[in-house]
Write a structure and sequence with these properties.
heterodimer, A: 556 residues, two-stranded antiparallel sheet, 21 helices, B: 157 residues, mainly beta, Immunoglobulin-like, 5-stranded antiparallel sheet, 5-stranded mixed sheet, 1 helix
Chain lengths: 556, 157
């Protein structure tokens, strides 16, 4: 037991900062922050439930029915299951520290159990900060007895183990799928594309369901019917979740106008809870006898003398200079984990612009309001994309000590430095063009105006990208990246973010002024002026960037 | 992107909706809807405009009743005055609820005033007394109503 505790603490210290235990002041601030976090979630959940109850969204009688909690808990459980399965798959079968843990004077079983306990602690943390406050808010609204509140807190101590144990079992097929996808790259890429396309399609479909005129009272009947359909479907297909919510919340004792009250003083609550505890024990046994042998066999595999074979070695082909450099720089960017962040931002921004314009369209705006819509659209398009350029302010420092290689290549350093920006520049330009097209179409701009605004946004983004790159070049952090690999507080990153906010805000302000003046003129003039501002900004950034590189790399 | 930056961007998104929704919204004149609270039958007069006494018939619920005594055949006219409260109600229009199958009786709204004219064609004095129930109800909320029972009684001169 002592060994197990030491193992768990060792792994937890790796993931959680226990620095707050060092001083009393830090401990108090940590406790206050924790209580505050819990309270905020509970208050937000209570307000949400109260509003739904007031508007009779879930139920014609008002209040929040238990079925609503089943849907909410089902969603949270699904997310937990997904994250636990993926996390446990990587931790149990692919984590590098397993090779260190196996050398410790403890049994394999203990390492396996310690891994599960660490995940259980994280799951319990998630329950404390998300699921328990939501259920407590529901209990508060349902005016249940005090014992119900204590029961909810107690039940979640055991409930938090459910996604961990199911995740441990599901991690086995997940591991085989993961290995298969790692081996067959085209399938992996296709899967990612299908997943992203599917998610984007569903989100866009959901956003398109937002009506032109949002009138909650008018569509209340439709909402209530849809809710009832969802509840019926969940009750039919999420039977285990339904039973779990039964013993968390209890059973209805009185129902009337304004809500339903629940009690746990019902034999079925304890019956379902006992069955759940049995199921949990069974899941632990299954996880122990299925996942543990696989875990131990994978961890104890020899790796020191493993020979890596490259089956698809391609012979080196001489390429033209620019193509060769472009290929190298593109590979560097695409292989870095940063590209995922960029792609995520570039996909999310057009979707958010579609959503925000759907909401703006539902608001009956006056002329000034319409000008605000134009200005905010530009701000909301530029802000996230420009803020993502903060990662570019770390591009060259991430090379670590290899950064000096650029100085040894017998060509002008401008070429390799600039070509590294190309993949992100192309991807961001596509995202900006799509976002501006969505915005332009929804506010019924002409094609010319849309093109001019797209030019403006692309030029501003390119200018900011170059500015961010020059920040990194002028104040390199190579040594920090070479030693620690990551940097939490990079001044270049911070500077780039501040510039992104200032540039976006200024453009939004100018666009508001220009579009307001354009009432007397054709709107095109405002768009022409905006595109000119963008081009001037790009040229100025480019000029400074080239000069700085010339100064920095000319060592005579 | 850092968490703090993501949070600020989210806040800007929410703020934009609030700003446009608050400062950019089209200004509209708001007309307060005043709902009808009650309809009261205030008076019933005969064809000469003489007021008839309103009594109360107690069955399951008390209902106003008016008795008109006649001594010869012909047309009998009642004018039923009603009041819609409050006077500034947005929609003071009323619905008249009565037995439409009775062809001896015609019911019309008096133009320009809150009154209903009931014209009763009495051809056979032998089958009197007869009653006719008229309910005046609110156009929107039909539970707001008042009813009067009109009786015609034959009394030889």
């Amino acid at each position: 037991m002592k060994h197990l505790k030491a193992l768990v603490m060792m792994q937890l210290k790796d993931k959680i900062d226990f620095g707050f235990t060092a001083s009393k002041q830090k401990l108090i601030s940590k406790i206050v922050f924790t209580v505050l976090k819990f309270t905020i979630v509970a208050v937000v959940a209570y307000l949400f439930f109260y509003l739904c109850s007031l508007l009779h969204i879930f139920n014609i009688m008002g209040g929040v029915p238990k079925n609503a909690m089943m849907v909410i808990y089902g969603g949270i459980l699904l997310m937990s299951l997904f994250s636990c399965t993926l996390g446990l798959m990587k931790t149990l079968y692919f984590a590098d520290d397993n090779k260190i843990l196996i050398t410790l004077p403890v049994t394999g079983n203990m390492i396996f159990i310690s891994r599960l306990i660490v995940y259980y602690v994280f799951e319990l943390k998630r329950s404390i900060f998300l699921t328990i406050p939501i259920f407590l808010a529901f209990a508060l609204l349902s005016k249940v007895a005090v014992i119900n509140f204590i029961w909810i807190a107690f039940v979640f101590i055991l409930l938090s183990a459910l996604p961990v144990l199911v995740g441990a079992i599901l991690s086995i097929p997940a591991m085989f799928i993961y290995r298969f996808l790692q081996k067959v790259k085209p399938v992996q890429i296709l899967c990612y594309i299908a997943l992203i396309t599917g998610v984007v399609f569903v989100v866009v479909k959901l956003i398109s369901l937002i009506p032109e005129n949002i009138d909650l009272m008018d569509s209340l009947g439709v909402i209530q019917n849809t809710m009832q359909d969802i509840f019926r479907w969940c009750a039919a297909y999420l039977y285990p979740v339904n039973r779990i919510v039964d013993f968390i919340v209890g059973f209805a004792v009185s129902a009337g106008l304004g809500g339903i009250t629940y009690t746990i003083a019902d034999g079925r609550v304890f019956l379902y809870f006992a069955l759940f505890v049995l199921a949990l024990a069974l899941l632990f046994v299954i996880a122990f006898f299925l996942s543990r042998p696989l875990f131990i066999s994978m961890v104890s595999k020899s790796f020191e003398f493993e020979k890596k074979t490259f089956e698809n070695n391609k012979p080196n082909k001489p390429l033209p200079l620019v193509i060769s450099i472009l290929k190298t720089e593109c590979s560097t960017v695409l292989r870095s984990g940063l590209m995922v962040n960029f792609i995520a931002v570039y996909i999310i921004v057009p979707i958010l612009i579609y959503l925000i314009n759907k909401i703006f369209n539902a608001i009956d705006t006056r002329t000034a309001g319409l000008n605000m819509v134009y200005a905010f659209n530009l701000l909301l398009i530029l802000l996230p994309i420009l803020a993502s350029n903060a990662m570019i302010a770390t591009f060259y420092s991430r090379d670590g000590r290899a950064a000096y290689v650029k100085k040894t290549v017998p060509i002008s350093p401008i070429l390799p430095i600039t070509l590294r920006l190309l993949p992100t520049l192309i991807a961001s330009s596509i995202s900006l063009a799509v976002s501006v097209c969505i915005f332009g179409n929804m506010v019924e701009f002409s094609a010319l105006n849309i093109a001019l605004l797209a030019i403006s946004c692309i030029a501003l983004n390119a200018g900011h990208m170059i500015w961010s790159a020059s920040l990194d070049l002028m104040n390199p952090q190579n040594e920090t990246y070479a030693t620690s690999g990551e940097m939490d507080d990079n001044p270049n990153e911070r500077g780039s973010t501040v510039i992104a906010f200032i540039v976006s805000a200024l453009i939004a302000f100018f666009s508001f002024v220009l579009f307001t003046d354009a009432v007397k003129e054709p709107v095109n003039l405002a768009c022409i002026k905006l595109s000119l501002i963008g081009i001037v900004f790009l040229v100025a950034c480019l000029y400074m960037y080239v000069n700085k590189i010339k100064v920095y790399y000319n060592e005579k | 992107m850092k968490k703090s930056v993501i949070l600020v961007i989210c806040a800007v998104y929410i703020l934009s909706v609030c700003v446009v929704g608050f400062f950019g919204i089209k200004i509209k004149q708001y007309y307060e809807t005043v709902n009808v609270e009650s309809i009261v039958i205030t008076a019933v007069t005969d064809e000469q405009g003489n007021p008839l006494e309103i009594g109360e018939t107690v069955d399951e619920v008390p209902v106003k009743s008016v008795i008109k005594i006649i001594n010869q055949t012909g047309k009998v006219t009642f004018k039923v005055y009603y009041q819609v409260n409050p006077a500034n109600a947005t929609d003071p229009t009323v619905l008249l609820n009565y037995n439409h199958s009775n062809t001896d009786i015609t019911v019309t709204k008096a133009p320009g005033e809150q009154a209903v004219i009931v014209t009763w064609n009495i051809e056979n004095l032998a089958i009197l007394p007869k009653s006719f129930s008229l309910t005046i109800q609110n156009n929107v909320n039909t539970s707001i109503r008042d009813t009067v029972l009109l009786y015609v009684v034959y009394f030889p001169a």
